[in-house]
Amino acid sequence: MIINNALVKKVKDYFDLNIYETKVWLALLSKGVVSAGETAELSGVPRSRTYDVLESLAKRGFAIIKVGKPIKYIAVEPKTVIEKMKSNVFHQAEEKVKTLVNMRDSPEYTELEQLYKTGISPIKTEEISGFLKGRSNILPKLKEIFDRAEKEVSIYTTVSDFEDKTRVLLPAIESLNKRDIKVKIALAGEAEKVKRLNQKHGLKARHSEHPGRVYLADKKEVLFMINPENSQEDIAIWLNTPFFSTSLAGIYDLHLKTN
Asked: What is the pTM of this model?
């Protein structure tokens, strides 16, 4: 069997297999039922390794051991393998989430919090800033900032940016409303789109001509995007400085009053 190297590489990455496992599984799929000897001939994997590899594939659900002698292995349909892998991933994720949730009640978590507070307390607020790259880092930071808010949160961004972040923004806004924290929203873009967004989500966002993407909490913390909206990856700056945040909020509020 001539093995397509491009296919081997992609299957290896998709299914989290090593190179021998990938070649043996492809050989197994091509024949349906094979012995270890046949697998070695088809896959090009050394015969001394095919036994271990086939056993590994059987344990992981890529093959089934056929009853009888000599021992042969039956290929499992790729669709079934994918469903099994999906189920395993979900189960592992749930277990990991439970572990992380339970950790908050552990002595180790208390120690971590104490270490953080000890380290952060002597630092001046204007010295606390950070560079964030990618949605996976920006969105959790945004939620963290909102969770810390005590009086008000201001969202000055575009319609498309707001829609892109609704998974985090809408639950956060709902939580802020329940805590009686004032939420101000101003969105740049077509006025009709702002109106539809308000109607769809029960918001009171104002229309703005300013294209910036800025998020403020209590006029103390600010997170703002520093790259164009159509960039491949978001880049943001987070600052914990009341002086800058208050000044920035004043500029936006003035802009809204004059429009």
From this structure: 0.58
Q: Show the DSSP H helices in the chain as ranges.
A: 5-15, 19-31, 36-43, 47-59, 78-103, 107-120, 135-148, 159-164, 166-178, 191-201, 242-257
Sign of the CA dihedral 66, 70, 71, 73? Answer: negative
- The number of distinct structural domains making up the chain is 2
Matching residue, tokens 């050394």: 46
pLDDT digits (tens, 9 = 90+) for 132-154: 988 889 999 999 999 999 999 99
- What is the token pair recorded at 11? 């299957």
Residues 134 and 69 in one domain: no
- Per the DSSP assignment, residues forming a β-bridge with 32 are none
In this structure, the answer to whether residues 132 and 250 fall within a common structural domain is yes
Q: What is the pLDDT of residue 131?
A: 86
Residues linked to residue 235 through DSSP beta bridges, in sequence order: 133
Six-digit token string for 140: 């959790």
Angle, CA of 246, 248 and 250, to the nearest 5°: 70
The dihedral over CA atoms of 150, 152, 157, 161, expressed in degrees to the nearest 10, equals 40
Residue type present at position 151: K
Closest CA to 212 of 222, 203, 204: 222
Q: Does 182 share its domain with 242?
A: yes
For the record, the structure tokens of 141 come out as: 């930071």
User: What number of other Cβ atoms are within 10 A of residue 241's Cβ?
Assistant: 18
**What's the length of the chain?**
259
Asked if the structure places residue 113 within a domain, the reply is no
Rounded to 5 degrees, φ, ψ at 205 are -70, 140
State phi, psi for 75 to the nearest 5 degrees: -70, 140
Reported as a single tens digit per residue, the pLDDT across 7-58 is: 888 888 889 899 999 999 998 888 888 888 888 888 888 888 988 999 999 9
